[in-house]
UniProtKB/TrEMBL annotation, chain B:
<feature type="active site" description="Nucleophile">
    <location>
        <position position="101"/>
    </location>
</feature>
<dbReference type="InterPro" id="IPR046884">
    <property type="entry name" value="MnmA-like_central"/>
</dbReference>
<keyword id="KW-0808">Transferase</keyword>
<dbReference type="InterPro" id="IPR004506">
    <property type="entry name" value="MnmA-like"/>
</dbReference>
<keyword id="KW-0819">tRNA processing</keyword>
<dbReference type="Pfam" id="PF20258">
    <property type="entry name" value="tRNA_Me_trans_C"/>
</dbReference>
<dbReference type="Pfam" id="PF20259">
    <property type="entry name" value="tRNA_Me_trans_M"/>
</dbReference>
<keyword id="KW-0067">ATP-binding</keyword>
<dbReference type="GO" id="GO:0002143">
    <property type="term" value="P:tRNA wobble position uridine thiolation"/>
</dbReference>
<keyword id="KW-0820">tRNA-binding</keyword>
<feature type="binding site">
    <location>
        <begin position="6"/>
        <end position="13"/>
    </location>
    <ligand>
        <name>ATP</name>
    </ligand>
</feature>
<feature type="domain" description="tRNA-specific 2-thiouridylase MnmA-like C-terminal">
    <location>
        <begin position="283"/>
        <end position="367"/>
    </location>
</feature>
<dbReference type="InterPro" id="IPR046885">
    <property type="entry name" value="MnmA-like_C"/>
</dbReference>
<comment type="function">
    <text>Catalyzes the 2-thiolation of uridine at the wobble position (U34) of tRNA, leading to the formation of s(2)U34.</text>
</comment>
<feature type="domain" description="tRNA-specific 2-thiouridylase MnmA-like central">
    <location>
        <begin position="209"/>
        <end position="273"/>
    </location>
</feature>
<keyword id="KW-0963">Cytoplasm</keyword>
<feature type="binding site">
    <location>
        <position position="32"/>
    </location>
    <ligand>
        <name>ATP</name>
    </ligand>
</feature>
Amino acid sequence: MYLDHAATTPISAPALAALTKVISRSGNPSSLHGAGRRARATVEQSRETIAAAAGAHPTEVIFTSGGTEADNLAVKGLFWSRRDADPRRTRILVSAVEHAAVQDTVEWLAKSEGAQAVWLPVDEAGTLDLEALKKELDDGGADSVALVTCMWANNEVGTIQPIADVVALAAPHGIPVHSDAVQAFGSVPVNFKESGLAAMSISGHKIGGPVGVGALLLGRAVALTPVQHGGGQERSVRSGTLDTAGIAAFAAAARDVTENLAAEGARIAGLRDALIAAVRQLVPEAVLRGTDPALDPAGRLPGNAHFTFPGCEGDSLLFLLDMAGIESSTGSACTAGVPRPSHVLLAMGLDEDTARGAQRFSLGHTSTPADVDAFVAALPQAHARAKTAGMAGHQSSIQTASTGG
Amino acid sequence: MRVLAAMSGGVDSAVAAARAVEAGHDVVGVHLALSRMPGTLRTGSRGCCTVEDSNDAWRACDLLGIPYYVWDFSERFKEDVVQDFIDEYAAGRTPNPCMRCNERIKFAALLEKAIALGFDAVCTGHYAKVITDADGNPELHRAADWAKDQSYVLGVLTHEQLKHSMFPLADTPSKAEVRAEAERRGLSVAKKPDSHDICFISDGDTAGWLAEKIQMTPGDIVDETGTKVGGHDGANQFTVGQRRGLKLGTPAADGKPRFVLEIRPKENKVVVGPHALLAIDELKGIKVSWAGLPIAEVATGEEFDCHAQVRAHGDPVPARARVTMVMDDGVSRQALTVTLGEPLRGVAPGQTVVLYQGTRVLGQATIDSARSLARPELP
């Protein structure tokens, strides 16, 4: 049973159909002959579809290899172009709960490019502290700000950020705002134009498209220094031959999710609420992290449930659930596979031990009530075992040569 | 049995896991993350916890068709192995961190977590053998390949720990055989070099590493008569038996090389002398443990014949040993006196003495003091 849709969600039927149809055809969309024109037509039609799905103008869609590349392009590109226009602009105002694609990019700019990272605090639900942002703009000096970046929805705890308020605060100063909307797009209504954002990252495989394709939505008037140079594709902002099949599939997935957004959102939220209720009943000590959907239904991604289980290690719980056929996550994947206490939870004020007991269950378009039932059946034993294993990583009760009598 | 295979990313643990799978056990591979900041790539034969090693372990599990996880023991490792290593050196002793890791991490923290999560045993690629008697009591024995035998570093395991230990490489005639088997099985780590040295000191410079962690104070180097013959930057970086790096100004009377005989942390003194004075024939051990059920003489306090080994790849010497009870912090604890049939050289407090009868490991103790019965105490 797959409860890790926030990591990646299975490809949707329309996307798979588009992918298999287009990938068998040859043609570089930059070529001028028939095959090239056909490929280009597919790309441009896909661009229009994605623009419509995200509330953008087609020229605002810059295709990338995914969310991480879009985030890098936006944050580095905006920082460089804004600083080059005015060398005083070295500060990046960034939320403390960003995905690594933004967080690490900002840290790199601070380390290597003279940027000054200003990490904006969040409250205990993970919502950005707007007062802190206002203070940085007013007292810290808006003239020194290169950009503001704040994710639309958090990938770990599902908290939806007040993007409209962030833009409203930055706009009078003419400061561009970027938002990583990888988790939000396709899950909740997202409209680039209405948001007033300068740049917004989206990704294919989080919405039922293939892995390896995404886009940066970039306002027509926004100047951006490219990261990747070459053939000048994509407004010369992102060079490289376009992945026609991936783009076609991404567009098919985008159309599919946005057409069904309201109904699917309600259906998935219903499953998620059942899951939350079951966890609370079976493990009363478990704490739901992020916004409680019972109190603020619009404050949380419909597919996200995230708990901390006191006295349990998240990796023990993950292991036991995995052995029982339930696929979940401790929050965010790590290439080395080493679980670390989540920076998101720490920013929300949790201590390291509490943060280690985290487990994220995320639902998506293929989720059914049977998934929730299977999870509910497996949870009590897995939790009891994980609790026994407890903090074995911290303290051992096995008597050894140097601890025993 | 449900078996947790501890996978370092090396060839031994990969083949051990393969054999556990083949024996019909339900095996899960686990790589221990022992550092919070693992290196990306392995360099030479040093270190063992890089992302590359983790990936090697992962690929081995893929091939074996078993699940793979990384478990974080970095905090426990830092406390129980790395800090212990520093503390021991700071106290003028010479610890064995690999032994400590087996004792406190692999067969304690990991084992306990494994048992709690429903496993019956932890399987590793160590070359040693567990024999279980009819009543289910484990005995630890040397591996078939004496040259690769690692029973010494496992000598610290107790009855409870051994009951849940599995060493599938026990009867392998040689390491070459293990490599050949890895090759046959298509394991990509077949030709991976053996790891050496201390995994958490990546450049192998133990003295330099210690100098950053321990307050080093310059002091005197004296000879066996108590005469000052030189100076040092800090007594704690020396090891008994060490010859190099003494930088003595005054040559020995006989012109022969001198060796570190003793480290006296309280006086911040290093005592040096001729090779002959390194020989010791009596050891006193503390922190005694028994690898399985203790032999009868442990309870009676009678002296017993055995062989004593003081380093991982050192030859055992015939010895007689006796257990006494001593009071330590108001608690009565076992202490061990080992009289050696042949003298040993370069034995340092902090090292472990492992006792054998034939191939069987009886138990071990941490060496508290070592002396020559014939030699008077050094001034």
